Write a sequence for this structure.
């Protein structure tokens, strides 16, 4: 059983090569571009592989994505017509919810204001001081990550709603769906959290128009955006314009249209923007290797693969 590891950085590939070997599961691991005989390769483990890395793999049976998102492989000319399995893992899910709760609390509890006061040694309370139960958080994307995030936000006491493509029924969360449900979802949202994948359907959807639909009657000085889904779901110039126009009060952004974010981007220096380098939740190397190894074992036994991407939907 031969697996090809193909990542954007050779160092990343080496880590997964070592991880898979450590498991001692009998896999013959090849690291792109040292592929050996292409016809040996039945599996591929990829993260933003070089264009062409998956070409000519005539016996390839499954592609595994190192991340939960698969936009780094979809839409490429060399993506073969075989199942694409994405990474789903409790640790990845837990850490994304940590990020979401951290940033919701940061804006709710006005930590940017206090950090600024501290630079001047200024002892000053910021008012009003609403409780979590007065703040309406809306999570876009009620998949593996979104569902865990809404559950944890609910435990913190927030009024939580979710928005997804298909209608969901969850007792303790107000659920909205599709284009028809978007307006009402936004109107009741003070803090918007995006955990959407990037697909043709979500491309650029966080724009001025969407931001202007957020609640204007909340207890914070204005609406807040937190995006840890994908950068291409947002239009950064619109986010900046909305901040300047006070249509948006603050933002936490982990993902960007182009990554890494250019040092010239005005987002870096905006006083009400918090930037993190696409690390809201990073896939743990060994967890990925174990996951892939388990999936291959299932597949070899004739059991169905888990978390297979619907190529038509794009996630
Ligand atoms: P899932 O596939 O489990 O969930 C995706 C959710 O998005 C679903 O609820 C789906 O709706 C919804 N959705 C997709 N397209 C649309 C649309 N056009 N309109 C409305 N809702 C839509 O993915 P995960 O929860 O596992 O992950 C979400 C994304 O998070 C990943 O794709 C990745 O881009 C990002 N991510 C970011 C990380 C980071 O560190 N910043 C780390 C890991 C992931 P429905 O339920 O109806 O299908
Ligand atoms: C992922 C990511 O998709 O790290 O897992 O962004």
């Amino acid at each position: 059983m031969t697996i090809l590891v193909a990542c954007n950085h050779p160092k990343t590939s080496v880590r997964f090569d070592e991880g898979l070997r450590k498991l001692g599961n009998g896999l013959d691991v090849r690291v792109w571009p040292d592929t050996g005989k292409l016809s040996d390769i039945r599996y591929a483990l990829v993260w933003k592989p070089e264009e062409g890395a998956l070409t000519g793999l005539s016996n390839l049976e499954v592609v595994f994505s190192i991340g939960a998102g698969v936009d780094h492989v979809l839409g490429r000319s060399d993506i073969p017509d075989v199942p694409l399995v994405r990474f789903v893992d409790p640790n990845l899910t837990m850490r994304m919810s940590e990020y979401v709760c951290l940033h919701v609390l940061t804006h709710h509890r006005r930590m940017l204001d206090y950090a600024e006061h501290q630079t001047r040694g200024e002892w000053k309370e910021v008012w009003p001081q609403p409780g979590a139960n007065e703040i309406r958080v809306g999570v876009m994307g009620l998949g593996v990550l979104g569902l865990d995030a809404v559950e944890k936000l609910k435990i913190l006491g927030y009024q939580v709603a979710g928005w997804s493509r298909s209608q969901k029924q969850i007792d303790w969360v107000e659920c909205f769906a599709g284009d028809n449900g978007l307006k009402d979802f936004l109107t009741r949202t003070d803090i918007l959290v995006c955990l959407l994948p990037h697909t043709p359907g979500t491309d650029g959807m966080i724009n001025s128009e969407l931001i202007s639909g957020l609640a204007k009657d909340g207890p914070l000085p204005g609406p807040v955006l937190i995006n840890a889904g994908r950068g291409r779901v947002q239009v950064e110039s619109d986010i900046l314009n909305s901040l300047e126009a006070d249509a948006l009060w603050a933002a936490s952004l982990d993902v960007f249209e182009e990554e890494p974010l250019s040092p010239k981007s005005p987002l870096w220096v905006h006083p009400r923007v918090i930037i993190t380098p696409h690390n809201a939740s990073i896939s743990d190397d060994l967890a990925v290797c174990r996951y892939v190894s388990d999936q291959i074992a299932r597949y070899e036994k004739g059991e169905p693969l888990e978390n297979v991407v619907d190529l038509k939907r794009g996630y």
Remarks:
- The first strand starts at residue 2 and ends at 7.
- The radius of gyration is 21 Å.
- The chain has eight helices and twelve strands.
- The chain has two domains: 2-89+283-300, 90-275.
